[in-house]
Amino acid sequence: MEYAPNAADLLNVWERGRSQSPVDRALSLLQVATRESPREALAQVGIGRRDAELLKLREKIFGTRMTGQADCPACGQQMEMNFTVAEVQATSLPELPETCTEIFGNCEISFRLPNSSDLATLIPSDDLAVQKRRLVQRCVLNAKCSGRLIAADQLSEDTVKALSERMSELDPQGDVQLALSCPLCSHRWDAPLDIVSFVWSEIHTWVVRLLHDVHALASAYGWPESDILAMSPWRRQAYLELIE
Question: What does the DSSP assignment read for 206-220?
Answer without folding.
Answer: HHHHHHHHHHHHHHH
